[in-house]
Amino acid sequence: MPSSLPLSTPGVELEPGKPPILRADSTGDAASWAAEHRDAVRALVAEHGSVLVRGLGPADRDETVSVLRRLSSGPMTEREAFAPRRAHSDGIYSSSKWPPHQPMCMHHELSYALEFPGLMLFACLTAPAVGGRTALADAPTVLGALPTDLVARFLREGWLLTRSYNDEIGASLADAFGSDDRGVIESYCRAAAIAFEWQPDGGLRTRQRRSAVVRHPVSGRRCWFNQIAFLNEWTLAPEIHEYLVDVYGADGLPFNTRYGDGAPIDEDTVHLLNEVYQSHTVSEPWQDGDVMLVDNVRTAHSREPYEGPREVLVAMSDAVRLADCSPTVEVITA
């Protein structure tokens, strides 16, 4: 029988600046604990938007994968990745290959896709010596803190993601689409409402318009749900931005974001978005054996720069369709 662990259990710690923390007593069998307490843990996520389970301490990678499987429901295969990952099992991956000294700013996983995970799970195998937290921000709170005129424009127009795939930087075609066959890629793009154009050198450029604000599929709350700031050129470190523009040109960046009508988003606006996220961020340093569950629609996540080895497994689960989240704009279909 699933545990009936009450939401008010003393094991759940609620402190300002931190995600909810649940102290687990797994008595050495992390996978069994996860199976027994699955419903209670997921109920905490439904209430708070996230929960960090501490004390499970799975012994190795195989047991960690077992824990993630028992806590998740309906694993998702990642498509349209922006950075390579290593697959460990169905729906369970390594963290994105992103330079340790560069932050990964706040975002919602696959918020540019027509189907995205409703639940993200993170499991820390090796905590870094310095930094590397997976920080969180509540999307309804972030939405309420943004300027009303800016929100109104994004509600009206949505946001546009442009991507340029090449063999040198970022995710390859095979990483993103599961194949490098042109026919397979074109079929995927048409089904996923992604406009595409093949380049003379064999590269691919795509664009897709999505809603910047959606309603949570269960609670109905409006959430700031996108990757406008994270995938924008002005979030890049200046030296990286300069290098990429010099090599690929302003229109050939691996990824960039715009207003839904195609107009560029100015640097000040991108910095404002990141500052609002930062002012509503909560985090807790990773410890070996930690497992964190995150409602991907309600809660944005990021990754700090870090030093030393860091290994965090990522699971994507509980698929949600954009069409079920009251999108405010039509997607691009050609």
From TrEMBL:
Its cofactor is Fe(2+). It is an enzyme of class 1 (oxidoreductase). It comes from Streptomyces coerulescens. This is TauD/TfdA family dioxygenase. Residues 28-316 form the TauD/TfdA-like domain. Residues 1-21 are annotated as: Disordered. Pfam families: TauD (PF02668). Keywords: Antibiotic biosynthesis, Dioxygenase, Iron, Oxidoreductase. Transmembrane segments: none annotated. GO terms for molecular function: dioxygenase activity. Its EC number is 1.14.11.-.
